[in-house]
Amino acid sequence: MEILLSYLPVILQILGKILTLLIPLILCVAYLTYAERKVIASMQLRKGPNVVGIFGLLQPIADAVKLVFKEPIIPRNADKILFMLAPVITFVLAMVGWAVIPISETFVIANINVGVLYLLAISSLGVYGIIIAGWASNSKYAFLGAIRSAAQMISYEVSIGFSIITILIYAGSLNLSEIIEAHRTMPWYMEILLLPMFIVFFISILAETNRHPFDLPEAEAELVAGYNVEYSSMAFALFFLGEYANMILMSGIASILFLGGWLPPFNLAFLAFIPGIFWFFLKILFCLFLFIWIRAALPRYRYDQLMRLGWKVFLPLTLVWVVLVASVVVFIN
After folding, report:
1. Nearest to 116 by CA among 57, 171, 156, 47
2. Segment among 57-71, 96-110, 220-234 with least mean pLDDT
3. Taking a C-beta distance cutoff of 8 angstroms, is the pair 228, 272 a contact?
4. Residues 197 and 130 in one domain
5. Does 233 share its domain with 309?
């Protein structure tokens, strides 16, 4: 008991950090749906949500209330426990990834030395929620959508891994805070050399999060709604909250690895007086805007085109780039 009481201040401090991060994050996930609808509406010369509240700002709350009070329908032949567990897994994994994300120089829940490996492990586990949802639904449409999603996520994790390796070779560390600090002294030619890998990484996270133009698991024409076709009520909402939470998480990872995290853009000294947390969230917003812009602008890929891009274009390209970056780093040193 005495040992537990001695650790109580540390436990309370960690719980405070977790709540400080998770509560705004859940609100951001809810309002990202609103932002997406508004941005796409502007691009298509429509108004978007504008009825519930001023400028439609209460629309996410109205949607949440509607989904909470809707009756959950579980198919008769479904595996009920796994059926209800799958959306929870998807949402929780999108949240726990933030444990190692450094929001600023002073705020991070767990500043571990293998932060990159932790994030890769969490993103790899995300496929289990989708596979379980498709299998537990006991529906051919849901299962086909889950299989397609699993193949897609596994394919693009390879190119994500190799594109991350390029920045790790330069930074010489798996610690996310040290990777950001490596950007502080990064020469201009290394930034140019890593730019193609940022593009590959961003396209790969579009496929990893099942976002347009790679949202093949939710292809309405042949699979109705894919792996979540049998879901309703709050279980249905958790899949979409997990998807949007993954978008924010992946945007945060892209900001840390390739855009310098909390550092000012291009390391401009006269902008250093602005708090680092502002720059970090601004870079996340930039990546999220690209997510939404691409959804509004591009048609959906065919499945064979998706696989060809991942295995025949990105995989050879990232392998060559790893060797190229390693050669440049060895030459510099």
Report:
1. 171
2. 220-234
3. no
4. yes
5. yes
